[in-house]
Specification:
The chain has 626 residues and is α+β, with helices and mostly antiparallel strands. The chain contains 16 helices and 20 strands. The chain has a nine-stranded antiparallel beta sheet with strand order 14-15-16-19-11-10-9-8-20, with helices on one face. Strands 7, 12, 13, 17 and 18 form a five-stranded antiparallel beta sheet that branches. A four-stranded antiparallel beta sheet has the order 3-4-5-6, with no helix packed on it. InterPro entries: DUF2264_C, DUF2264_N, UCP014753.
Length: 626
């Protein structure tokens, strides 16, 4: 079989960086930022990194390219590091905020992308005013002051955007500019109103608790806790206390090799996932031993250092494990991925800070199964890799939201796939989804639930993919496997496909020694490193339906981690009436061993009914009235 000789780290400026020292992290910021210097406009106010578009104005996209690197440059410079070329960024502030300059960014307006970028400027002023404020011309300071003050009077989106005003306020305070603090108090009150308890927030008044909770809500909350006004001490302490409760839980989203859980929107921000751990250090919060915090932070950055996430220039691409527009959101411009620079917050700390002085700790052994009621997840581990069973969340339609939030399972090793063709029912990946179709083309999947409950090692949801079709689903963690039970009531003739985990496919077609393993009940794919398997089982309800196994090769560039994949699936056609079926599902590293056998024990109908009646309502699903 021909080998795939792709240079996996092609173009990645972090390739070979061990992130073992503070100097390593400083060098990473320099290496990631240097390729941008060739993309500056003549007046330095715009940085154009590509030709693809987002839903907002190109001027705002070019502003992203200019200021999102500040998330790394500001702490680098605040901590005594250097970047040769910083003058271009300062010139960009001088000119971009000036209404008389041809490269003026335009004013911030309500729910405007420029408001998002104002936060990076506020952060830079708060951490390194000697560079980003003192380095401006007198007119540049006046124009930037007015631009930022105007931004505070514009309405943010009703979610983490409220923190953008807060960061602008911190920057303005640091450089001595008075402004209306009642606006900021209102922002902070709204943000605290989304507290779900136990350290978790919603991202606004929605059923969302994704990576925006660590890399936005807690990230900004800890910055406010560290740099906010002394007169707001009680609120600052509340932000700290929530982060203390949150940290041991979000740790379950990270595998032993450093991979974070691919789940939810804005995955193109990649190693922003390390930002929460770095900001704990910036805020002086030893919620875990410093060596453990350092370990979560460094392992995640190392995991990214060998991935093909950049173009040949060394510029970060839109995508996750590789350049992939099909998984992007409508607000992703070519400069958007530089939100990843939030990972470098601890560079503002002195070299002798305990975060840097501590020896990085190896991953600790953890409970194999953990229930997280706030986000609606049951986590289990196998050989250091993390799988979560999921339910209860829902996102606005930014792009591929059912795939990002509503699959049955997500994995740090196998990621998830997006559907790139709405009428590709016959060969869509449908990994960890149950898809329905009337005509065999348009597919419908779980995207909202009428009920969502959780227990110590299981989840239950009630949902409807289309009118006159009702589904109840139970997900049970039985590591390294999990069990799915579906009970369906339908007034329609429908076709169904249910997928297991997507498995990396290195070559366009299987070779003679690499063929799907199919029996009358099982579909399994085994490579040199991994196996993925789904086994049809009878569910303990009336209407038992048997399904046919198969392995499909979905369209390329559908999985967020690898460009080509296999997915084992089960298929069945249902007639009107009651139907039920189940599946044992597994994916894991082989490490020289045969794939494990599936468990035999099945819950009874009474067991499943007791779960449905007695489980805890998933908290993110249970929106408060009003």
């Amino acid at each position: 079989m021909m080998k795939d000789l792709t240079n996996q780290a092609m173009g990645n400026p972090m390739a070979g960086n061990s992130f073992a020292t503070r100097a390593d992290a400083q060098q990473a910021v320099v290496d990631l930022t240097a390729p941008l210097l060739e993309a500056f406009s003549p007046g330095c106010a715009r940085v154009t990194l590509g030709a693809t578009g987002a839903h907002f104005h190109a001027a705002a996209a070019d502003l992203e390219g200019l200021v999102r690197p500040f998330w790394g440059l500001a702490p680098l410079l605040a901590g005594g590091g250097r970047f040769y070329g910083i003058e271009k960024f300062v010139d960009g502030l001088n000119n971009g905020a000036d209404p008389a300059h041809p490269e003026y960014w335009g004013p911030v307006t309500d729910r405007d992308q420029r408001m998002v970028e104002s936060a990076a400027i506020g952060y830079a002023l708060a951490l390194a005013p000697d560079v980003f404020w003192d380095g401006l011309s007198p007119r540049g300071r006046d124009c930037l002051r007015d631009w930022l003050l105007n931004s505070l009077h514009q309405t943010p989106a009703p979610n983490n955007w409220n923190f953008f005003h807060v960061l602008v306020s911190l920057g303005l305070r640091r450089v001595g500019i008075d402004h209306d603090l009642t606006i900021i108090e209102g922002n902070l009150d709204r943000l605290e109103g989304w507290d779900m308890g136990n350290g978790w927030y919603r991202d606004g008044s929605s059923r969302q608790a994704d990576h925006y909770i660590p890399f936005a809500m807690h990230f900004y909350g800890l910055i406010y806790a560290q740099y906010g006004p002394e007169g707001d001490g009680a609120r600052r302490e509340r932000f700290r206390e929530r982060a203390r409760r949150f940290a041991p839980q979000i740790a379950h989203w990270y595998a032993a090799d450093g991979a974070a859980l691919p789940y939810g929107r804005s995955l193109t921000y990649r190693f922003a996932h390390a930002g929460f751990w770095g900001t704990l250090a910036l805020a002086g919060e030893e919620v875990l031993p410093w060596g453990d915090i350092r370990g979560f932070w460094a392992r995640n950055l190392r995991w990214w250092s060998d991935k093909p996430i950049c173009d040949p220039r060394g510029t970060l691409s839109i995508g996750y494990g590789y350049p992939q527009l099909s998984m992007s959101e409508r607000y992703n411009s070519p400069g958007s991925p530089y939100w990843a620079m939030k990972a470098f917050a601890p560079l503002a700390l002195a070299a002798d800070h305990p975060f840097w002085a501590a020896e990085e700790a190896a991953p600790k052994e953890r409970p194999q199964v953990v229930s997280l009621p706030e986000p609606g997840m049951v986590k289990f581990e196998d050989r250091g890799d993390v799988t979560v069973l999921a339910g209860g969340q829902r996102s606005p339609t930014f792009g591929r939201t059912a795939e990002k939030y509503n699959k049955f399972a997500y994995s740090t090793r196998y990621g998830f796939s997006v559907e790139t063709e709405g009428r590709a029912f016959r060969n869509g990946p449908f990994d960890n989804m149950l898809a329905f179709s009337e005509e065999g083309d348009l597919a419908m999947v779980r995207c909202r639930e009428s009920m969502a409950r959780i227990g110590p090692d299981w989840l239950y949801s009630a949902w409807s993919p289309m009118p006159e079709v009702a589904v109840e689903t139970w997900l049970l963690a039985r590591p390294p496997w999990h069990l799915r039970i579906h009970r369906i009531s339908s007034a329609r003739h429908v076709q169904t496909v249910e997928g297991g985990f997507a498995l990396r496919r290195d070559d366009p077609t299987p070779g003679p020694a690499l063929q799907p393993e199919l029996t009358d009940r099982m579909a399994r794919m085994v490579t040199a490193q991994d196996a993925s398997c789904i086994i049809d089982v009878a569910a303990p309800f009336p209407g038992v339906t048997r399904r046919a196994p198969r392995v499909v090769m979905p369209e390329p560039n559908t999985n967020v981690l690898v460009p080509r994949s296999w997915v084992p699936q089960l298929t069945a056609t249902l007639v009107p009436g009651e139907a039920c079926f189940g599946a044992w599902v597994y994916a894991g590293r082989l490490e020289g061993q045969a794939p494990p056998e599936a468990p035999m024990a099945m819950p009874s109908a009474d067991d499943l009914a007791a779960m449905r009646a007695g489980g805890e309502v998933i908290r993110v699903w249970d929106l408060p009235a009003g």
